[in-house]
Structures are given as structure tokens and as C-alpha cells.
Amino acid sequence: MAAAARPLVSVQPLPASLNDMATDHVTTVALPDVMKASIRPDIVNFVHSNISKNSRQPYAVSKKAGHQTSAESWGTGRAVSRIPRVSGGGTHRAGQGAFGNMCRGGRMFAPTKTWRRWHRKVNVNQKRYAVVSAIAASSIPSLVMARGHRVESVPEMPLVISDSAESIEKTSTAIKVLKEIGAYPDAEKAKDSHAIRPGKGKNEEQEAFRNIPGVEVANVERLNLLKLAPGGHLGRFVIWTKSAIEKLDSIYGSFEKCSEKKKGYVLPRSKMVNADLARIINSDEVQSVVKPIKKEIKRASLKKNPLKNLNVMLKLNPYAKTARRMALLAEAERVKSKKEKLDKKRKPVSKEELAAAKAAGKAWYKTMISDSDYTEFDNFTKWLGVSQ
Amino acid sequence: MSCFDPVKWDPSWHRPCSSIHEELPGNCLTGPGKRPARNQGHSYLGMGEEVMVAVPESVLKKQKREEEWEMAKKQELAATKKKNAENRKLIFNRAKQYAKEYEEQGKQLVQLKREARLKGGFYVDPEAKLLFIIRIRGINAMHPKTRSILQLLRLRQIFNGVFLKVNKATVNMLHRVEPYVTFGYPNLKSVRELIYKRGFGKLTQQRIPLTDNSIIEQGLGKHGIICVEDLIHEIITVGPHFKEANNFLWPFQLKAPLGGLKKKRNHYVEGGDAGNRENYINELIRRMN
């Protein structure tokens, strides 16, 4: 991203009654690159939970606790448990159990030690990543509101006010300033009203603002993650002064340019520059190479037996219809002709037919007995063995 | 329609309480040089006033692309329909031709037999070219070599059946696995019924039912077999592409024979079931199909 593409943030002027700078009206500052860094709540959470352990003070029980007795077990055979018991006599304490964690007046289980590992080391780069994320998150109104700040009446995020705020000496004027810029509702939120005001951290400004509950002042060169993301939650409401926000660029650098204050440090790059998936998918570049959606999904249908189901058979073998039709017709024909034949046989023969049949029989016999007329003599010879 | 609806410019994309003017890269497409009429759509407010709404160029491009896809799809559909109609005719004629062929064969056989009887001799059928093998024994306690041979024959499960070409190699294989299988010479009815009722094809290592001729065309189109009747004809006449056609057919998974087997442990000639039972395989297929 070119530096020229940095959006401009307008600096809120303070009321003229406060200052003598009536010259500048609405100046603008280019948004520092830090505000565009990737916001990683996971890193912030991790770093915060580790860093918040660093200001702990050790605690432990006395190492002598529970052992300042010369107790010894009575052993078996005395109808009492074998726990070590206090020796001696003449007081309640005699014969009582000692040493064990279960005993009254005994030492606790695993007495706490001072050499427990209280502090956590976090990689410098991770710590910087977290701070950078927190700063970026503080410029996004939805995150700030989600954290619970009342910033509806704030004109712009990130909120920048002119440097004259540094010369405020009275808390009452400080409150007036907050009211002017619409930040007071947040300050009124008694319990959770925390707003930081990073400035250049001169004493005057600090004095004026620090009595307002929930407001902290910080030096922009030393921004604390524990303040920027309290509880590991991003989006604390931050009010910047003009020079503070201008300094951010030199403190953290940009995505290409190294930071001046932090040796060799470059702002972290995000995994996805454009994380708007819907937009990417619907973009022309993607849609132009995408294949058309398959609306009709073919599913396997139940297999039907073609030998029983005619339609399925026809799908596979269109000739089957005519073949079956022909078979049926042939069958009908056969049935018909058989019936006719039977009927004919069962019908009593009429006189003419009888006479014709008899005459035909006689004629054949005649041909049979006359050798030369017999046309089928070959067959005859075969099964009779006669020769002509 | 795309997976997502085309993106419309949404005023809520502006940050609340912010006066930052951002330059979104998308806007570069619709530079000032374009004619406003092309990108503008009309939307009407409640009062009936016309408001010019800019239609994003990506939406227009998407619409155009979808039109092209639709047209291509329509053309493809028309082409496949035409091809299908032609194929149908071809299949019909082929099936008719095969039916005639089978009838002729049958008639010829009868005629030859009658002729031989007439002359006092006998008609000897030519040796069968096609076998159908059914595995009749289970998988336990088997010699590894015979197990391998059965695997080669694709008989991995009891009552699995496959067709097989007859030649010296296959006959010797069968000899070694005789106690585990029964086989014989299937007739046309057996082949037809097996393929129609229990025919599954192998497409990309998957067992696909033969519900449509397109499946057969996909698998065996390059050998000229495009329908079930072609496949049946190839199998039964053991044509030039028998190997491919037979391999395309997944091994038949038959049901246990109704009426039972006689005695698995014995050879058919001993009154059992194993080994070559020539034409009586058809009766067994009727009971197992």
C-alpha cells in the first residue's frame, strides 16, 4: 500500500476559550500504518496472559510450618493410628497427630515455595505484534464499542485532538475537553470507564487527567499492552494528541520501512490482505474462470429387472417391443390353428369328405402295388430292404 | 446462477462515524470514461422518482457469462438428443439382425441334425467355445495355488459366476480348480437372462448396474459394442473383443440355487456337483439367477 493511499484523520480542535491557537481550524493527519496492522486477538491474548504475570510478587508459606515438633509415631499395638504423634505430656498438644497434611497443626501438602516460576518470558516480536494489534484495534469503532466503551458521540475514530491539550492544568478543563469531543459519556461510565490518552506525557497533562476515574495517560513511546488491551480484550478507547499520533509512524515504522526507534522492526504482515471472502469469490477475476454450477446431480436409481419390466427392457433394447409383439402374434396364431385342427378332427366327417378320403386311399394303394409308378421307392427300399 | 449472489454496493460498507474516504480497487473498473447509460440501472423510490443506480461491471460480466453457458448447454443438449435418436435406430436394427441370426442358427442346427439322422449318421456339435463357471465352495481351507487360480478367474466368492473362453490355457486352469467349481456351456437364454437381470459393468473400478446403454457405450464403445444386445452377441459368439467385453462384466453374484445342490464334494459324474456338467449348467443357472 503506497503511503499516498493513507486516509486522513482530522484533528479535533479544542474550544477557543482554552487556548490562544485560533489559527488552525481543522487540520488533518495521515493515518499511521500501525492502525492498518492485522488484528490478532489470539496473539494479544497470549501475550497479555503472559505479561500480566510479570508484576507478581512471590508468596509462600513458612518453610518451618508444621515441622516445629518432635513428633514420632507410636507404632502398632496401641489401638491408635500410626500417624506421628507429639511427644511429651502435660498439655493438650501431647499425643496429637503431627506432620501430616491431614493433621491439625501439620504442614500443608506441597508447601508453596518462593522459587516458583513467577515471570514469563515472551518474545520481543510477539510483544510488539500484540501492541501493534491493540493499537490497530483501538481505531476500529466496532471493536471499541464491543469492549464496552460509550463512543457513539465521538466524531471520528481514531480520535485525535490538537496538541494544546497538553497544556491543560485543571481537571475541570480536562472534563470540559472530554465533553467537547464527545468522550465524556464514556468517562461517566463509573465502573468500566477507562480511556487512555496517550500524549507526549508531560506532567501538566497527566495531572489534569489522572483524577478522572477510568482515564489513564500514557506516553506514546511507551505504550503498555496491559493498558491497551486490558484482560486480553482488544479495543480500549484511546484519545491521541496530534504529535503523539504523528510519532507513531516513527516508532513502529510501516509495512516496508523499518521503525526508527525499534531496531530492524517492521510491522507484521497479515496472512490475507483482503479477508473479505464474499467479495473475493464474487470478484470478476475469480468468476471469469469458474465453471458453471451443476444443478442437476445424477443419483443412482434402483435397478429394475428388464426381464420383468417392459419399459426398462425397451430402454435397453428397443427391438424387444416388436420381438414380443411378434411372439405374441405367433402364439395366438399357433393357438388358433391348433384349435381349428382339433375342431376339424372332432367334427363328424361329412359324407362327401368321407367318400373323397376313401377314394384317395384306394388310389394310393394302386400306385403302391404298381412298382414303376411308385415315386417314393427309394425310401421304401431303405426300410424294407427290397430292390426294384 | 453462481454460488453467491452478485455483490451489490451496500452503503453499510462505510464505517460508522467515520469520514474516511477510501479508494476501493473495485471502483477502478468503472472509470469516469465509461458511458453512464451502460452501467446504470433504474430503481424507483417510493415516490415514483427515478434514481440512476450504478450496476457493477462484474454483475454485467457475470450475466453475459451465464448467457453463454446456457447457450452452450442448450446446444450440447440438442446434439446429444440427436445422437441418441440416431443410436436408437442403430441399436434397433442391430438387435433385429441378431435375433434373426440366433433364429437361423437354431434352425440350422435342427436341420443338420435331421439331415444326419436321415442319412443314418449322427451330427456332432462343434466343441463349445463359451463356458460359464460358478464357484460352489467357500473360502476356507484352500490350497494357495488353487486359491490364486480362482482369483485369476475372478471367482472370489461362493456362487460367483463368470463367462470364459475355451482354449488350452483356460481348460488346464479349470482342471486344477475342478473340485471348487461347476461349469458348462450356457445357451442363449442363459446368457441373456444373466446379463439383463444380474449384469453390472466395471467403470473406473466401480460396479455400475447396466441400466442404460450409455453405460455399455462408455465402457466398450471403442470396440463397437454400444448396447446390451451387442454385448450379449459378443459373449455368446465369442467375438474378437470377447476379452474386453467379458472383463467389462463384473462377476455375476448369483443366489444359492433353489432346490439345492446335489453334493458339493463329489464330481458331477459321481452324482455330485463339481466339474463340467456341459449343457446341464443351463438348468442350474435357471435356479440360481
UniProtKB/TrEMBL annotation, chain A:
<feature type="region of interest" description="Disordered">
    <location>
        <begin position="57"/>
        <end position="77"/>
    </location>
</feature>
<dbReference type="InterPro" id="IPR045240">
    <property type="entry name" value="Ribosomal_uL4_euk/arch"/>
</dbReference>
<feature type="domain" description="Large ribosomal subunit protein uL4 C-terminal">
    <location>
        <begin position="263"/>
        <end position="335"/>
    </location>
</feature>
<dbReference type="InterPro" id="IPR013000">
    <property type="entry name" value="Ribosomal_uL4_euk/arc_CS"/>
</dbReference>
<dbReference type="InterPro" id="IPR025755">
    <property type="entry name" value="Ribos_uL4_C_dom"/>
</dbReference>
<comment type="similarity">
    <text>Belongs to the universal ribosomal protein uL4 family.</text>
</comment>
<dbReference type="GO" id="GO:0006412">
    <property type="term" value="P:translation"/>
</dbReference>
<dbReference type="Pfam" id="PF14374">
    <property type="entry name" value="Ribos_L4_asso_C"/>
</dbReference>
<dbReference type="Pfam" id="PF00573">
    <property type="entry name" value="Ribosomal_L4"/>
</dbReference>
<dbReference type="InterPro" id="IPR002136">
    <property type="entry name" value="Ribosomal_uL4"/>
</dbReference>
<keyword id="KW-0689">Ribosomal protein</keyword>
<keyword id="KW-0687">Ribonucleoprotein</keyword>
<dbReference type="GO" id="GO:0003735">
    <property type="term" value="F:structural constituent of ribosome"/>
</dbReference>
<dbReference type="GO" id="GO:1990904">
    <property type="term" value="C:ribonucleoprotein complex"/>
</dbReference>
<dbReference type="InterPro" id="IPR023574">
    <property type="entry name" value="Ribosomal_uL4_dom_sf"/>
</dbReference>
<protein>
    <recommendedName>
        <fullName>Large ribosomal subunit protein uL4 C-terminal domain-containing protein</fullName>
    </recommendedName>
</protein>
<dbReference type="GO" id="GO:0005840">
    <property type="term" value="C:ribosome"/>
</dbReference>
Automatic annotation (TrEMBL), chain B:
<dbReference type="InterPro" id="IPR005998">
    <property type="entry name" value="Ribosomal_uL30_euk"/>
</dbReference>
<dbReference type="Pfam" id="PF08079">
    <property type="entry name" value="Ribosomal_L30_N"/>
</dbReference>
<comment type="similarity">
    <text>Belongs to the universal ribosomal protein uL30 family.</text>
</comment>
<dbReference type="GO" id="GO:0003735">
    <property type="term" value="F:structural constituent of ribosome"/>
</dbReference>
<dbReference type="InterPro" id="IPR012988">
    <property type="entry name" value="Ribosomal_uL30_N_euk"/>
</dbReference>
<protein>
    <recommendedName>
        <fullName>60S ribosomal protein L7</fullName>
    </recommendedName>
</protein>
<dbReference type="Pfam" id="PF00327">
    <property type="entry name" value="Ribosomal_L30"/>
</dbReference>
<dbReference type="GO" id="GO:0003723">
    <property type="term" value="F:RNA binding"/>
</dbReference>
<dbReference type="InterPro" id="IPR018038">
    <property type="entry name" value="Ribosomal_uL30_CS"/>
</dbReference>
<dbReference type="GO" id="GO:0022625">
    <property type="term" value="C:cytosolic large ribosomal subunit"/>
</dbReference>
<dbReference type="InterPro" id="IPR036919">
    <property type="entry name" value="Ribo_uL30_ferredoxin-like_sf"/>
</dbReference>
<dbReference type="InterPro" id="IPR035808">
    <property type="entry name" value="Ribosomal_uL30_euk_arc"/>
</dbReference>
<feature type="domain" description="Large ribosomal subunit protein uL30-like ferredoxin-like fold">
    <location>
        <begin position="131"/>
        <end position="181"/>
    </location>
</feature>
<dbReference type="InterPro" id="IPR039699">
    <property type="entry name" value="Ribosomal_uL30"/>
</dbReference>
<dbReference type="GO" id="GO:0000463">
    <property type="term" value="P:maturation of LSU-rRNA from tricistronic rRNA transcript (SSU-rRNA, 5.8S rRNA, LSU-rRNA)"/>
</dbReference>
<feature type="domain" description="Large ribosomal subunit protein uL30 N-terminal eukaryotes">
    <location>
        <begin position="55"/>
        <end position="126"/>
    </location>
</feature>
<keyword id="KW-0687">Ribonucleoprotein</keyword>
<keyword id="KW-0689">Ribosomal protein</keyword>
<dbReference type="InterPro" id="IPR016082">
    <property type="entry name" value="Ribosomal_uL30_ferredoxin-like"/>
</dbReference>
